[in-house]
Batch of 4 targets.
Target 1
Amino acid sequence: MVSQHGILLAVNIISDHFGPIVSKVCGCLLRHGALSLQDIVRRLELSPGQVKNSLLILIQHNCVQAYTSPRGAGDRTVTLYLAIFDNVLHRLRFSKFLSVVRVDIPESEVLLEGLLQNGRLTFEQLVERTIFKVSEDSPLPTREEVRMNFNKLVYAHYVERCPKPEPFFDPLAVEQPTSTRKRAPKTVEAVLSLEQKVVCTAALSDAERFSEIPYFMDGSSSAKDGHHAVAGNKRKHETLEVDEDDSIIAESEVLWRINFERFIFCLKKKFCAERKKAKMRLGTLAIWEAFFEANVTNNDNKTVTSPIDGILERVGQKEGGMSMTLDHITSVLNDLECTSTANNPEEFTFDLNKLVETCRNDEIESLVKKKHGQEAYTIFRLLLKQGSPVETDEITDRTILDKQVVHETLYKLWKDEYIDSERVPSTSATGTGSAQFFVWRVKNIYREHFMDNLYHAALNLRQMVNYMAELLLEGSKDEIKLRNRKNILILALTRHDESLMLFHDF
């Protein structure tokens, strides 16, 4: 469930990109969940045409997923629309996504930019846009060159074919246990939200998602052309006809979009690599960087896996790397918690989620320390590590703090909704009276509370940036001062987004 400030932030993002009417439709779906077209019209009191156009824009830009579901008696189904909150927030990271491709596949940057700006495009549209973007003094790329660059994005899983437009999804059938369903998958399904279930239902198989555009020469771009040149050995006429049809469909009808999961993994990997750098020695740092640079593409978004040959090659390219032995590099990798498995001792794997969890705790503890001081930091850290209720006197003994200070600090943390308290009857009570004492634990929803504060802060920063932009448009006398303030706020928003990604995306 998205928090109130998270919804307001999403509405603000959509409003900036597509206007107030589209943002109203998006906000309605985020607040009320999946709704039909008629339900949205009734709730917002907008015309059916306005709602329909808004939904088409949101679907085009991957912010809403449509699906059909049973409704009423018999076999009657209805089309429902569900806002994808994660994809709305990803619009904040478009510049970060471009920077990833700029380093990895620089020649494909224009193609990626087209998909980021337009949401969903066919390969035909991408070719036209790429040619249009070429400056007058530069040579025009051939269709085959564009196709090669595009297939690099598909091969690296940066781009995928769009999911099913309106898949059938029955919530009741999903919730009902079946005798043929295995226990492990059933446990995973139970924790998925409606949004996640609908997205999974609409998703294509990996073979379909990342199926590249077939190889044809420039003449294959038009379905009306009678002659198609094929590179390589000659093939039978029947096979050629099938390939031509597939190529025409793939280029002019199949829609493509950004694979957000892959880009978030790249940002997650970069974040974890940077977090450890400050505490490393020069020799260790070179091996750590080489490990991440040698990362092989896989479907796992939780770990980084690199072959030892790739690590050695990249270590050798760094200062002092040629003098490092295999044993030394292996020892450092083990110290950095990059482990090899018995199944494949030639590959090393690092658990990103473990480091992310540590960084999350550090961030919250740092905020507690900043707001309430060292004593609050000490007590909160104790409760967080303990993971179970701790009695007041035990907190006093283990933190070596004054009893009065402990009581005051616990009250501050409780009031700020970081911890919970509970009265527990004493087992050693004697006589007719019943002795009681307080126990304290970290709140189960303290992270949700923290994330809501992050959404609130991001919303405030965005509104302040927009306000500065409006003042500049009005032609204020203090233009230089306003521009400097705006740049400072944008920088603050960029840094704040790292915390938002840490808790929401990673």
Target 2
Amino acid sequence: MKFQIFAISAILALVIVATHAALTPELYWFSKLPTTPMPKAITNLLHPEWKEDKSTSVGVGNSEVNVDGGNAGGGGTNVDVGKGGVAVNAPHKGKPVFVNVGDPFNYVYAASETQLHHDPSAALFFLEKDMFPGKQLNLHFTKTTENAVKFLPKQVAKRIPFSSNKIPEIFSKLSVKSGSLKAQTIKNTIKECEEPGIRGEEKYCATSLESMVEFTTSKLGKNLWALSTEVENETHMQKYVMTVGMRKMRGLKAIVCHLTKYPYAVFYCHKTEATRTYYVPLESEGGGSKVKALAICHTDTSQWNPKHLAFQVLKVKPGTFPVCHFLPEDHLVWIPK
């Protein structure tokens, strides 16, 4: 099943000017991270106008943003994981159900019985001891499409508030009607970003590529890997096998950034110390799809909510076993080299 992600029908009026006052996202990236290749989780979210170096900069002619959510209120209930984590579009005659993007990856989140049985992200969790060649898991990986949300330039993102105290102004700038499904989703994402993290966790919601790079380099330095899962072919929920070639990245420090449910690209990032990162090659049963997956293993879960989705799925208690999860294609992990 597909899930409809917010698309920006008219992000801004791009004015190409012959000046170096502002760098394109790719030039900015390599000016700050010259030895770090840009992962697909980033390149997939760049506006087409920014993907070529024309020795010019992008000027902003209009900071107003129009949001086109499609027919988000009807046509049945769609649930999916991958493009921003989890989203639910409820039937137009029923009460909207909101499952915010960061929830499965938010340590204070408690899963409901419905989400335990119907949330596709539940399959992403597994125990570190179960990571070995030949291990089988039922998974669903989706590919990022051209219709995915895009990054706004930092100078535009800065003009749009991102605070629960500025909700009316946000709705005005994004042309969102108060009381709509889009409005509720925006409020949910902002609320989650503003909630305090658990002990030892540093949280940050990056509203632009530049702000995400600034946050990660301030915490981990500039000699970094930025990695994301790569999906060869999108499939339905099916059986995958861990194959030979798994490897563990060095160190226990990492920042993991999850794409949120928002009209433009906003990443929910959190830094923890007790984290191990793995590269895990997967192949679907029958060989129809291969995935170069990134797995994050949390070695200290003692501060997590005891009713977190991972504990209910894996039947373990906080602080007992390292808990791992795969990253969807449009999420990424930053680790020191």
Target 3
Amino acid sequence: MESSSSSHHDRHEKTLTITQIEQLGVEEKVAEIFQILNGVSPHTRSLIMELQRDKHIEFLTRGLRLLGPSYHVLDANRPWLCYWILHSLALLGEPLDLEFENAAVDFLLRCEAEDGGYGGGPGQMAHLATTYAAVNSLITLGSMWALSSINRDKMYKFLSQMKDPSGAFRMHDAGEMDVRACYTAISVASILNILDYELVKDVGSYIVRCQTYEGGIAGEPGSEAHGGYTFCGLATMILINEVDRLDLPRLLDWVAFRQGVECGFQGRTNKLVDGCYSFWQGGVLALMQRLLPIADEQLKLTFVPRSCLSMKSSNNSRSADTGDSPGLYDDLCQSSTSHQQIEGKLPDVGLAFINKKPNWGPLFNSTALQQYILLCSQVLEGGFKDKPGKQRDHYHSCYVLSGLSVSQYSWSKDENAPPLPKAVLGPYSNLLEPIHPLYNVILDRYYKAHEFFSGRQAQD
């Protein structure tokens, strides 16, 4: 005969949703893993928290050489595989053999479409997602051949063709239109120094419509707030110098509450923790560190209707002729130049943003996130996974490592200076390379690309 406590437990389980049951299962697995830290010496704790750098490099390098038959489903994502692996190796500070570098550049050149942009493989149609991956891969490689292989004239033509009259971008010819497309297009144009008013026109209005009642940003108007789209939307609004049009206090509130009891981030409300959101959500909070003055100003103006705070003219510019005051974001760009005044080219927001030092510490529990990454997402044989019970893969390896880097540097006032030891969980040898949080490329590769494409402006 069943005990009353057992019967009560069974009845309780029947009242839970599938999602709640899965959540409790994940929490139980994570708690079991975290218990190994109880009562161990500081030296043992440091060893447990060690980043298995050599194993990760081995796993990633093997992926560059040869991928098994199971990867055939990613045939249209091959530039993404390049980016995930190359960026992960760069984060780990692992130099690439010249043979691999030359092979990667040669392959990506064969992915370039005749009219600009990059497809998922040689002969495939150009797509904004794989274009972003290819450009970031070439910038991560960083050689003169890699950087000069990018045809900026053809790229601008492709990006212009993907521009929709609504202001948003389509992922490919006659393809879907969403915030991800806006980010990949604007990010590529920004880092290649080809961003102009025509590409920016009305993009901000589209993204503003995608911010939900929760505060996060959805993929398209009317959809649910999502961590990946929130990063894409926020980064895009920064790059086009219109971030003050978003409700930043509400956005910050939504993202901050996505870090759960497991210490990692979930991508949406009431969803399970996932290692990749270490970057998609952690990256949003890294961006918000530099935007707190704007959020604070918006809070002070809460007595003003939101429509007034975000209202702009139909061309999204502040006109000096009408006497409009400089925007909240102008100090970040170190310029009050409007879109129209610069006659095409936009201010270099990417450089201004990274040079703007945050005056606040992290907006999330960076130590807790590192603990989740090292104990629950790291695979000791190499690579990273979504959560306990899942398999490792190159996608999660890339974005978990990106999130780990963001966490380690979250207390730093200067990304060019190494963080204090207390900011790095585990041995200090765990420290990764810093990234530019708007583009998710290694910071020194960003500086090299910035110098290269700025120098070529006069030639082009």
Target 4
Amino acid sequence: MFTRSPATKKLSFFFHSHKSHFSTNIVGEKPVLVRDFIHSALYDPKHGYFSQRSRSVGVLERSIKFNQLEGRKAYMNHLDKIYKRSDISWFTPVELFKPWYAHGIAEAIMRTSQLSVPLEIYEIGGGSGICAKGILDYIMLNAPARIYNNMTYTSVEISPSLAEIQKETVGEVRSHLSKFRVECRDAADRSGWGNIKQQPCWVIMLEVLDNLPHDLVYSENQVFPWKEVWVEKQHDKESLFELYKPLEDPLIKRCVEIVELDKNQSVSIAKSVWSKVFPKPRRCWLPTGCLKLLDVLHEVLPRMSLIASDFSYLPDVSIPGERAPLVSTKKDGRSFDYNSYLDAKGDADIFFPTDFWLLERMDHYCSGWMKPHGDNSTKQGKKRRTLVLDTSAFMEEFGLPSKTRTKDGYNPLLDDFKNTKFYLSVPTHNIK
């Protein structure tokens, strides 16, 4: 089962009884890079998708009692009722499986942390705060008192409304408030972090990577050089079209280099021969937003451990290009997927699959362990231990799967996340 959330596509894509309008102000008079177009389409304060959808992320009134449900059909019917009653877009896994999802993450952190120093946790994009509360609850109940008493948990949240919700959620347990704070800012903005923090810490990102801005590069065939894609208004001021320019943007050039680090001469020759026989245009989506965020995190938190969860695959994507996004909206009570990202002008979600192989390479690149071509400096960053696990494998290792199992043995936490993975990355002094 491939899902955006653990519900069916019918349930989770996206909005019930919510009208929206297109905005022609996503692109101004001057062309913009694709990443800037996507950022505006999603996050513009006036016209962005998330700005117009104040209730895009749901909060369950109470935890689901999985062991009281007969099986998959009963679970899906229960979800259907929740979605219709809540009138929201979708529930995150950490919300649907509270508190067990967050408890699994907390257990993974406890097993790999240096407990001789105070535990520091940062969460990027904390949503409703249910992950923070679940982790704080788990550590309060299961760790030595000194760990809980001396820990800090910082949520870096770009949405002011979600920041307030997080404070309320975590504040349900009074003792958590002395350990928890929300910083309402963009985590990818270096200026918001202040001085470099040398102490060990954890960074959590749950379903953050899929909504980070991406760039697009285009080539006429398999051997022609890449060109960066810009978005420009037509003369009628309504339609948008693509504009292709030589690679000049530093962030795009760095991302292309990371993607192509392993390419060798024999591969290039083979592609040259193939392109002469079957010339074919190429389009490639680049996670430049992720690269920028990792750059900042590795600079300001050089000893961080990272845990991220996201979609490794998205079904029914019609937009062309490697790592292409799904662009979806709700019209007249039904979900609708666009065939072009240019149609998303504040009325649709734009979300990408995560290439976990590429995520690992960017992680090593930003930490300084992997070097760009032409960098002959002797300074070498620290190698990192990394691990990619399917969600089911992660939860079987660190969670309590028995808590999300129905009477007939069906377990949505393990069975319905075939297109999601966890990425764990921890620093090490072993550079061999």
